[in-house]
Design goal:
By secondary structure, the chain is mainly α. The protein contains 21 helices and four strands. 47% of the residues lie in helices and 2% in strands. A hairpin with a 4-residue loop joins strand 1 and strand 2. This is Cytochrome C peroxidase.
Length: 602
C-alpha cells in the first residue's frame, strides 16, 4: 500500500512538472482539441441518434441545448482562428452570398437546425434536421483539422478572450445566434466559463492576485447569467456595466501585469480597446483606399470647406450641405431630396455621422470607400451633375484652393487632382464620428445619464424587440461585431406608403440592381439608429415620418406583418407583441443615442 502511494505521488509530481514546462498556449491547444473531439462525438452519437429516433420535442430540444453549449466552449477560438468554417457551424440561417462570383450557398449549421426543432419537431422537418446534422459533422471535422495546424500564442489567447467578451455582449445576449429558442443566457454563461478556463492556465506559470480577481469576476458574471436566464426580462444594462465592463478592465490590467503585448493587427476597433465604449476606440480611416490618403487635420479642414461650398457642383449652386445639414444629423429632413433639373432623387438622404465606420456606402452598398461615394455623388446628374475631374480643374484655377490642396497633399503632388478632391471630401466625412451620446456616457460609468425608461428601452432593443440583431451595438448599424469588418444588409419589406394592411412593397429593388442575386431583391444596407431623433423621415424611401411608425412596422413583423409577401425577407416575420409602453421605451432609448457634440464642431 505504501509503495502504491509513493507511485501515485510521483505521478502527480510528474504531471505537475509537465504542466509547468508547457506554456499556457500549449496546454490550451490540447484542451481545445479535446473539446472539439467531445463536440464531434456528442453531435454524432447523442444528437444525431436523437434526431433520427426521438418522438419527443422537449427531449430533443434538451439534447440540442447540450450541443449548443458544447459549441460555446470552443467558440472563442473557432470565431477567432477559423471564421469561415465557424460561419457554417453557427452562422445566421440565411443564404451565404458571394457577389463577386455571383454565387448563392444555402445556409448551414446550428441556427438552421434550431428552426427545425423549435417550437416543436414535426415529421416533415426530421429528415432535413438529420441532413443538416450530417453537414454539421463535416464542418466540425474540418474545424478539428484546422485546429491541428493553428499556431497559438499567449498574445492571441488574450486577444481571443477580449473579442469573445465583446461578442457575448453584442451578439450573444441579443439572441443573434439563438433567434428562435432564445437560449442566449445559458449559452453566454458557457462562453464565459470557457474564457475563465483559458485564463486559469496562466496562474500555473505566474501566480497573480489580479488574475485571481479577474477569474472571480468571470465566475460572478457566469452566475448572474444562470440566475437571470429569461430572455425577455434579462437586464442587459446591468450585466454589461456591473459585470462585463469590470471583467474587461481587469483583463487589460492582468495582460499588462503578465507582460503580454497586444496584437499588432490592423483593425477598425483598436486592439488595445478596454471596452467598446472607450473614447476614440474606433479608427475612422480604417477603410482608406491607400496609405497615402491618411487622415490629417489639413485634409479634414479642406474637406469641410469643400463640403459647404457649391464650387464642386455643375451649376455652382449646390453643395454637399444642401442635402446633408448638420442640424438634421447630416440629412435634409425630406423624404427624398430635390433633383437638379426637377423631380426627386431616388432615395432618402442618409446621415453622414459615423459613415466611416462601415465598409460600404449608399443604401445599395455599391461604394466600398467614402472616396468612391464622393465621386459618385459629384458625377450623379440629379445630385451634382459634374465630375471630380472637372471640380479638380476648377479648383486648380482658384489660387486660395490651390494653396490649400498643396499644403494638404504636398507629399503627393503640387497640383489639384481628382483623387485629392475625393479624399478631401471623404476626410471631412471621416471626422464626423459621433460616439458621445448620453448612452455612451452611461456605458462609461455615469449612471445618472439615462432614465429608467431609457434603460428599459435599451434592454428591449437588445432583447425582446430584436433590434440589436441587425443594428449591432455599439455602432447600432449593420457593421458586425466584434471584428467590425463587414456591413450587412437586410430585406425588411418597406412599403411604398404608410399602410398597415394589404400594403405594397416599395418598387426600389436595392442591392439587386447592383448584384442580381435573388436573396438581394429589396435588400438595403442596415443604417445606424444613432442620432435617429434628428434624421426623420425614415427608410430608404422616407416612408415613415416618425419613430412611432417605425416601431409599429417592426412590431407587426416588417413587410410580412402588413401583408407584403417577400419570400426572401430576412427580418423575423413574427409579431413582436410590444405594448404601447414598451414601444415608447425603445424610442426613448433611441433618443438617448443623440450626440450633439459632433454637430457643434467648428
Amino acid at each position: 500500500m505504501k509503495n502504491i502511494l509513493i507511485v501515485v505521488g510521483l505521478a502527480v509530481i510528474l504531471v505537475s512538472c509537465q504542466a509547468q514546462r508547457e506554456t499556457p498556449s500549449q496546454q490550451y491547444k490540447k484542451i481545445v482539441a479535446q473539446q472539439i473531439d467531445s463536440l464531434l462525438s456528442y453531435t454524432e452519437h447523442d444528437f444525431l441518434s436523437s434526431a433520427r429516433s426521438s418522438q419527443n420535442s422537449e427531449a430533443l430540444q434538451e439534447v440540442f441545448f447540450g450541443l449548443r453549449k458544447k459549441y460555446k466552449r470552443v467558440e472563442l477560438v473557432t470565431e477567432y482562428f477559423m471564421p469561415v468554417t465557424s460561419r457554417f457551424v453557427n452562422g445566421p440561417a440565411l443564404p451565404v452570398l458571394d457577389t463577386e462570383e455571383h454565387k448563392v450557398q444555402d445556409p448551414q449549421g446550428l441556427q438552421v437546425m434550431e428552426e427545425f426543432i423549435f417550437p416543436q419537431v414535426d415529421t416533415a422537418s426530421k429528415e432535413e434536421l438529420v441532413r443538416h446534422t450530417e453537414i454539421l459533422l463535416v464542418n466540425l471535422k474540418r474545424m478539428r483539422s484546422l485546429w491541428k495546424t493553428t499556431s497559438l500564442t499567449d498574445t492571441l489567447m488574450f486577444d481571443a478572450a477580449r473579442l469573445q467578451l465583446f461578442r457575448i455582449i453584442t451578439l450573444g445576449i441579443s439572441g443573434f445566434d439563438s433567434p428562435v429558442a432564445h437560449h442566449s443566457m445559458p449559452e453566454a454563461a458557457a462562453s464565459l466559463k470557457a474564457v475563465n478556463q483559458m485564463l486559469g492556465l496562466f496562474k500555473i506559470h505566474q501566480p497573480s492576485v489580479q488574475l485571481e480577481a479577474l477569474r472571480e469576476k468571470l465566475t460572478q458574471a457566469s452566475a448572474y447569467l444562470e440566475q437571470h436566464n429569461t430572455f425577455d426580462t434579462f437586464d442587459r444594462a446591468a450585466f454589461i456595466t456591473k459585470h462585463i465592463h469590470p471583467v474587461l478592465k481587469q483583463l487589460s490590467s492582468v495582460q499588462a501585469e503578465l507582460g503580454i503585448p497586444f496584437v499588432n493587427d490592423a483593425r477598425m476597433l483598436k486592439t488595445s480597446a478596454t471596452t467598446l465604449f472607450d473614447p476614440d476606440v474606433f479608427i475612422p480611416d480604417f477603410f482608406l483606399p491607400g496609405e497615402k490618403y491618411q487622415l490629417t487635420d489639413e485634409r479634414i479642414a479642406l474637406g469641410r470647406k469643400l463640403f459647404y461650398d457649391p464650387v464642386i457642383s455643375g451649376d455652382g449652386k449646390r453643395s454637399c450641405a444642401s442635402c446633408h445639414r448638420p442640424e438634421k444629423g447630416f440629412t435634409d429632413g425630406l423624404k427624398r431630396s430635390p433633383a437638379l433639373g426637377g423631380g426627386l432623387i431616388a432615395r432618402n438622404a442618409p446621415t453622414l455621422l459615423n459613415a466611416s465606420l462601415q465598409n460600404s456606402q449608399f443604401y445599395d452598398m455599391r461604394a466600398t470607400t467614402l472616396e468612391v461615394q464622393a465621386r459618385d455623388v459629384v458625377s450623379n446628374k440629379d445630385e451634382m451633375h459634374s465630375s471630380v475631374q472637372l471640380s479638380a480643374e476648377r479648383l486648380q484655377r482658384n489660387p486660395a484652393y490651390r494653396t490649400l490642396f498643396i499644403d494638404a497633399y504636398k507629399e503627393i503632388g503640387n497640383s489639384v487632382t481628382a483623387d485629392m478632391v475625393q479624399n478631401a471630401l471623404a476626410s471631412y466625412v471621416r471626422s464626423l464620428v459621433s460616439l458621445n451620446s448620453r448612452f455612451d456616457q452611461y456605458m462609461r460609468g455615469d449612471s445618472s445619464r439615462l432614465s429608467r425608461e431609457e434603460i428599459a428601452g435599451f434592454n428591449l432593443f437588445m432583447g425582446k424587440a430584436q433590434c440589436g440583431i441587425c443594428h449591432f451595438m455599439p455602432l447600432f448599424n449593420g457593421t458586425v461585431p466584434p471584428s467590425f469588418t463587414q456591413t450587412e444588409s437586410e430585406v425588411i419589406g418597406v412599403p411604398d406608403r404608410v399602410q398597415w394592411q394589404d400594403a405594397a412593397v416599395d418598387p426600389d429593388e436595392g442591392r439587386y440592381k447592383i448584384h442580381p442575386l435573388a436573396p438581394l431583391r429589396f435588400a438595403f444596407k442596415t443604417p445606424t439608429v444613432r442620432n435617429a431623433a434628428l434624421t426623420a423621415p425614415y427608410m430608404h424611401n422616407g416612408v415613415y415620418a416618425n419613430l412611432d411608425d417605425v416601431m409599429e412596422f417592426y412590431n407587426q413583423g416588417g413587410g410580412a406583418g402588413i401583408e407584403i409577401e417577400l419570400p426572401n425577407q430576412t427580418l423575423p416575420d413574427q409579431k413582436l407583441n410590444l405594448s404601447s409602453t414598451e414601444k415608447e421605451q425603445v424610442i426613448a432609448f433611441i433618443r438617448s443615442l443623440t450626440d450633439t457634440t459632433t454637430l457643434q464642431r467648428p
